[in-house]
Backbone:
């Protein structure tokens, strides 16, 4: 096995040979990173953070009762963290020093992995810190684990690994935020491993500052009868691309992916998901929605691969997109690749604007046109958000999402 | 256990020998294999082509030389050696130019008879004018007089080049430009024949136009070029059907089909493709790499593609519609069956440019044995396509655990007033459905046939009457032997 220095060197070489992905790559057809260098300079990966102080209280979810792990500008902040004793936690930076072989395992760069790209290689080479967490067999975390990644611009490269032992249960909330006004970039990989019977609720909130680039990846590997649920919300950043790669390795594993992206202005949000059904009797459900206003550009690509022998696979995917303005655009591509006959797979996509009949109905009940529009837009998005466990998290996302849509003003009145 | 028996049945169900596999022995006037400018000059000279067409071909050839063969589809095959193909092959008796069916080589007629297409009877009874393409040159065109009365031009494209050069020059390459893609460029350089249809303003073509393609001579790629022009307010339904003799070497078929629909014009283009699919080990079979595109130029124009693809080792084609006109309509109905080692990567492109343009896509895929098939489609709604509407449905039916079905739909929407829906499902024949039918006294084979037929019904309904019968027969034949 390579040692950590060699590994990072090798990953960097791999990045340097391939360079940034371009729109000529099929997986990056709709997402153009060519402006990255113009915004951040040739060495976009090592830009220093701005002087702006990070205001943790202003950025964090209010009223959330949770354990907390805080990273500021790509480094662990012990003072702002509150870590439960029941889990084993080491920041990646310390792990690299103390147990380099463990760190190697975590940031191992696998060129064969699905949706692999040079950004991951760069992240492997540059990862400065991240959370390395082990949750022991049969342990149940009593409160959510809130992992907060805050930045004040510049380049941040994070790598987090979470392992759930047999029949362990946990809830994790990852949030990416910043309050600066300069351009910056975050690259992050979250690797999750669920052992037999483990259950994980994963909430991922991308609320980066307005000029931040966010390039993220979530890798999930699931063993027998484990269950994984993702609530992904993308509301921030200038350009964001998140790849969710889920591997159902053993029978009985279940994966639920819920995602919402709300974009306006010149935001570009790209979500790629890939679910590999590698074993029989696995279930996957995917439900993604987008609300696009202004000149926003949304991209969704959902791929489900059913391997030979993965019989009794049950998989359904749905993607609905709402375009609120003339300038907004969506490119969506739901893919199925099935090598087996005993399966049930379905996907559906819709793109449209608000239903005239529904608008008419609300107006006939005395609502103004504006109110009716807001209510329907909100209801469209809330179908995803309503699946979240914590009311305070849901409200937090709703506020962040709809503050950006100028038409949605009187939000509180609509909240149930 | 009865269960194992059940598993076995779908296997034999699709293992049916290719019924149309035989070679007609006719002397052919064939060029030695190879491709260079001299070959193109030779083809052009053989067909007495004007200077502009030769230049057009050469330009396409020069462009083709700069291109590389694309490899993005979800199919695998041994690469084609373009220098090992003979680019011209015509039945020898063609020099005399048969003027009626009586003059046609009797062996040719015999071939059609073996295929169950009695040309004379069918042409007479069904009122179909048949422009039969045997290898690359048309040898029989019927009902010309009747079509002439209403002003419809239906002839081999080489004849159109001679008699209506202004029309050919104006429209050929205007929908699929010579440099459009690798295979289209190759076709433009070496195409030998194909059909030309021109429907004048306000004319409803009095009969279904039909061409039977047949690849015959060993080692000749078939490069057809079809051009259909429907002027304002006209209507035409065009049928294309294909069978080919059995052989062991892969044959390349790279046709180009161009449709142009003006204001209020309607074109219905139906295909039944049953070329040789290769044997049960995946040896041989036709490579069917076709570029088909329709240009709905006029307001309220409508183009409808219907295809039943049961043959070919590899099918790789995307009949497309460019919906330029306001309120123009594009439709695509497809049934694709892949069995043994067949592969298909097919679908459609609907490019919405005009206001209130509408499109419907219904694609049904059936994969059996080691067959693999992909639906790949693009629905693009440009900023200008105010109020555009698309509905897409693609379903796959899987028979056996060695086959695969894949869906790659691209949806690109740049206008908020557009409404687009896409749905796809993949499943095997429901055991409960089979059980229900059997409990009502229907044999398993009939039950499977019924379910498959029901599955394909949406598409077969779109076929012209004569073709619907043939398509049904084709499905039955392909799926025969499932049980007992």
Residues:
């Amino acid at each position: 096995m390579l040692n950590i220095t060699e590994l990072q060197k090798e990953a960097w070489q791999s990045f340097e040979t391939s360079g940034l992905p371009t729109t000529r790559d099929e997986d990056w057809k709709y997402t153009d990173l060519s402006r990255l260098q113009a915004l951040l300079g040739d060495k976009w990966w090592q830009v220093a953070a701005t002087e702006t102080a990070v205001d943790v209280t202003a950025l964090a979810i209010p009223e959330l009762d949770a354990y907390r792990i805080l990273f500021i500008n790509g480094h662990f902040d012990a003072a702002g963290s509150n870590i439960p004793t029941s889990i084993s936690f080491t920041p990646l930076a310390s792990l690299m020093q103390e147990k380099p072989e463990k760190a190697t395992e975590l940031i191992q760069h696998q060129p064969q992995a699905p949706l692999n790209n040079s950004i991951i290689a760069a992240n492997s080479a540059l990862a400065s810190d991240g959370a390395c967490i082990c949750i022991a067999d049969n342990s149940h975390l009593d409160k959510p684990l809130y992992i907060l990644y805050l930045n004040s611009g510049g380049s941040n490269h994070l790598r987090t690994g979470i392992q759930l032992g047999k029949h362990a249960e946990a809830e994790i909330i990852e949030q990416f935020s910043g309050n600066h006004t300069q351009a910056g970039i975050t690259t992050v990989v979250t690797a999750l491993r669920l052992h037999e019977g483990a259950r994980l609720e994963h909430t991922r909130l991308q609320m980066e500052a307005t000029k931040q680039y966010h390039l993220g990846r979530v890798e999930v590997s699931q063993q027998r009868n484990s269950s994984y649920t993702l609530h992904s919300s993308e509301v921030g950043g200038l350009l964001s691309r998140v790849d969710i790669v889920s591997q159902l390795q053993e029978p009985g594993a279940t994966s639920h992916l819920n995602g919402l992206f709300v974009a306006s202005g010149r935001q570009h949000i790209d979500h790629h998901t890939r679910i590999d059904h590698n074993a029989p009797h696995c279930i996957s459900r995917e439900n993604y929605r987008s609300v696009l206003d202004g000149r926003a550009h949304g991209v969704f690509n959902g791929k489900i691969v059913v391997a030979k022998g993965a019989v009794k696979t049950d998989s359904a995917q749905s993607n609905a997109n709402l375009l609120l303005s003339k300038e907004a655009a969506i490119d969506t591509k739901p893919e199925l690749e099935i090598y087996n006959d005993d399966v049930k797979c379905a996907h559906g996509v819709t793109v449209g604007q608000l239903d005239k009949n529904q608008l008419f109905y609300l107006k006939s009940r005395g609502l103004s046109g504006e109110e009716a529009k807001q209510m329907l837009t909100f209801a469209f998005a809330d179908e995803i958000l309503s699946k979240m466990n914590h009311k305070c998290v849901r409200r937090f996302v709703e506020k962040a999402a709809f503050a950006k849509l100028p038409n949605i003003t009187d939000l509180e009145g609509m909240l149930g | 256990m009865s269960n194992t028996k059940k598993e076995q049945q779908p296997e034999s169900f699709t293992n049916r020998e290719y019924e149309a596999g035989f070679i007609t022995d006719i002397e052919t006037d064939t060029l030695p294999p190879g491709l260079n400018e001299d070959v193109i000059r030779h083809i052009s000279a053989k067909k007495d082509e004007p200077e502009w067409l030769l230049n057009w071909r050469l330009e396409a050839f020069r462009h083709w030389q700069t291109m590389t063969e694309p490899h993005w589809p979800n199919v695998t095959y041994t690469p084609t050696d373009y220098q090992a193909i003979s680019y011209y092959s015509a039945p020898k008796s063609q020099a005399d130019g048969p003027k009626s069916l009586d003059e046609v080589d009797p062996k040719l007629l015999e071939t059609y008879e073996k295929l169950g297409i009695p040309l004379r009877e069918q042409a007479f009874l069904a009122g179909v004018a048949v422009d039969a393409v045997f290898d690359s040159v048309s040898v029989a065109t019927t009902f010309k007089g009747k079509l002439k009365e209403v002003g419809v031009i239906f002839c081999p494209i080489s004849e159109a080049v001679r008699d209506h050069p202004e029309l050919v020059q104006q429209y050929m390459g205007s929908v699929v430009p010579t440099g459009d893609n690798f295979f289209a460029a190759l076709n433009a350089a070496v195409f030998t024949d194909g059909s030309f249809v021109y429907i004048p303003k306000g004319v409803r073509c009095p009969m279904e136009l039909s061409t039977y393609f047949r690849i015959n001579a060993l080692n000749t790629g078939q490069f057809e070029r079809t051009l259909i022009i429907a002027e304002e307010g006209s209507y035409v339904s065009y049928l294309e059907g294909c069978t080919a003799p059995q052989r062991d070497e892969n044959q390349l078929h790279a046709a180009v089909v161009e449709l142009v629909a003006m204001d209020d014009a309607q074109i219905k283009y139906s295909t039944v493709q049953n070329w040789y699919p290769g044997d049960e080990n995946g040896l041989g079979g036709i490579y069917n790499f076709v570029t088909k595109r329709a240009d709905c130029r006029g307001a309220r124009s409508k183009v409808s593609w219907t295809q039943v693809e049961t043959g070919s080792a590899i099918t790789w084609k995307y009949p497309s519609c460019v919906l330029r006109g306001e309120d123009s309509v594009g439709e695509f109905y497809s049934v694709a069956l892949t069995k043994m080692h067949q592969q298909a990567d097919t679908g459609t492109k609907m490019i919405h440019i005009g206001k209130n343009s509408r499109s419907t896509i219904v694609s049904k895929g059936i994969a059996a044995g080691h067959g693999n098939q992909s639906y790949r489609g693009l629905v693009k709604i440009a900023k200008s396509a105010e109020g555009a509407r698309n509905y897409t449905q693609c379903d796959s039916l899987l028979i056996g655990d060695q086959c695969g079905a894949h869906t790659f739909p691209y949806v690109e929407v740049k206008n908020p007033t557009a409404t687009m829906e896409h749905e796809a499902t993949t499943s095997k024949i429901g055991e409960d459905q089979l059980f229900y039918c059997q409990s009502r006294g229907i044999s398993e084979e009939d039950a499977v046939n019924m379910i498959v037929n029901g599955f394909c019904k949406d598409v077969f309904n779109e076929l012209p009457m004569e073709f619907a019968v043939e398509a049904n027969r084709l499905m039955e034949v392909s799926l025969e032997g499932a049980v007992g």
Remarks:
- Chain B touches chain A at residues 72, 381, 383, 396, 398-428 (CB under 8 Å).
